[in-house]
Amino acid sequence: MSARRAVGRFAAVGVVNTLLDTSLFLLLHPRLGVVGANFVSTSAGMAFSFLANGVFTFAAGRPTLRRAALFLVTTGTTMWLVQPVVIGGLLGVLGPLTAKLVAIGVGVVLNFAAYRWVVWPERTASSPEGCRLTADRWAPAAPGDQRAAAAALRSRRSSLGSAKISDSSAECTARASG
Questions:
Q1: Contact, 129 vs 164, CB < 8 A?
Q2: What 3-state DSSP class applies to 37?
Q3: Across residues 77-88, what is the average pLDDT?
Q4: I need a surface site. Which of 92, 117, 174, 176 has the fewest CB within 10 A?
Q5: Cα–Cα dist 7/112, whole Å
């Protein structure tokens, strides 16, 4: 998928996510207070963002525990570490709301980069057929990737001979090295 298309989809997911987070917060605030309502609304937003970005933005196939963990680490890092540092650094120059908005912007850029290249890395032209590069190793293509790889193989069968979709990480690694 092109970077422009991915950015557009990422933005669309972000708008829906913001509406979900804000609506839940406003609905729950009277019953749960600020901390409780914010925890529930941001947690729901993170869950929605993980699923929607994985399926819609980056077409990654089924969610995995590994991707969920990477998503939580990257999103948590930008929300709970980067944003406070950016806000703290800008408070002497900008007001709190403007500093927060700038910090959100920095977080959006960092999250997109982390999601695209760490959480849901895309298969590149140099990837072995039927394989994808995960954060630290070659692995078999996800089910959705396998359908696309199979279609590509069928269309190029004469030049690829007996190429196939990989069954194991070891096979993908061997093919990437060879």
A1: yes
A2: helix
A3: 88
A4: 92
A5: 8
SS3 state of residue 109: helix
Q: Lowest-pLDDT range, 89-103, 110-124, 137-151?
A: 137-151
Distance, in Å, from the CA atom of 110 to the CA atom of 116, rounded to the nearest integer, reads: 10
pLDDT of 150 > 60? The answer is no
- Percent of the chain, pLDDT > 70? 68
CA distances from 175 to 60, 131, 138, 152 (A): 22, 9, 9, 18
Helices (H), the chain: 3-52, 65-77, 83-90, 96-114, 143-155, 157-160, 169-177
d(CA 59, CA 52): 9
Nearest to 83 by CA among 94, 75, 92: 75
Distance CA 60, CA 141 (A): 10
H/E run at residue 140: strand 138-140
Q: Where are the domains of the chain?
A: 3-119, 131-177
